[in-house]
Specification:
The chain has helices at about 10-35, 40; strands at about 50-60, 65-85, 90-100, 105-115, 120-125, 130-135, 140-145, 170-180, 185-200, 210-220, 225-235, 240-245, 250-255, 255-270. By secondary structure, the chain is mainly beta.
């Protein structure tokens, strides 16, 4: 039997298809590299660098019956290089606070550490460690940012129940390199990290019902750092109160809101 081999036309078609596939794969790899920012671009770490924020702090006073918003300015300054509690290279950030107009004295009110680890960036504050960023920075990429948190991390200071599952929160890149106006600053290359947005019986219609709010989102500008943060974690725990004597007993409920909220946005930097 005479063997004629593979037809020349088929060989040409196969070669052309292979070239197309190689070009497509090469194009995909280049696109992925371009879309992924580095940790240094998202959070530049340099001693002396600072960002000033306007800060709105939500607190519940009068045994949880009154909601108040306290307004400040807070400045985060990278003070020095150090090591964290695991002896890893880290950066120490010192925070100072003043009134919302910035006319009062600046008072130091805390510190935290930033630790870049391979493709992750960890922030540890008040002994709570969170993986704030994780590479690659591609829309839809997720990770368990609170995986190091203990169960009920804000108890007993805030005796709420909704912090029990914080370690399960999925952090996700919602947008990468977007343009936004934050604190009067027109910013390009803004990356939004979404954490959670859940609520129960909110807005509150009746104080007799349990209600809760979980909201957490952060925004980072390329070569700037954190430019926006909002974090709300609170519950309405109605408490019964009785008046009168049997058989004329009347039961009413007092709203008791427990938790806190923070909203901050950049207004100045160096």
């Amino acid at each position: 039997m005479k063997f004629t081999g593979i037809p020349t036309a088929l060989i040409r078609k196969t070669a052309l298809l292979s070239c197309c596939l190689l070009l497509l794969l090469s194009s995909c790899k280049r696109t992925e590299t371009l879309e992924s920012l580095t940790l240094d671009e998202l959070v530049p770490l340099q001693v002396g660098k600072y960002i000033t924020y306007r800060l709105d702090s939500t607190v519940f006073t009068n045994t949880g019956k009154t909601t108040e918003i306290h307004r400040y300015r807070v400045r985060h300054t990278i003070e020095r290089q150090s090591v964290d509690n695991q002896n890893r290279p880290a950066w120490v950030v010192v925070t100072h606070i003043t009134d919302s107009l910035g006319v009062g004295p600046w008072v130091q009110n805390g510190t935290y550490t930033i630790t870049p680890v391979n493709k992750k960036l960890e922030v540890t504050e008040n002994n709570l460690r969170v993986i704030k960023l994780n590479l690659p920075t591609q829309p839809g990429f997720t990770w368990k940012g609170n995986s190091y948190l203990p169960n009920r991390p804000y108890n007993p200071e805030f005796p709420i129940s909704i912090d029990a599952n914080m370690s399960l929160w999925e952090f996700k890149y919602e947008t990468v390199n977007g343009s936004e106006t934050i604190g009067g600053n027109q910013l390009t290359d803004v990356t939004t990290v979404f954490h959670i947005d859940e609520s129960e019986n909110v807005p509150i219609v009746s104080d007799t019902s349990f209600a809760s709010r979980e909201l957490s989102v952060e925004k980072y500008a390329k070569n700037v750092g954190l430019v926006f943060r909002e974090f709300q974690l609170w519950e309405n725990q109605p408490r019964p109160r009785t008046t009168g004597t049997p058989p004329n007993v009347i039961t009413t409920y007092d709203p008791v809101r427990i938790g806190f909220g923070v909203k901050m946005w950049m207004i100045d930097k160096n």
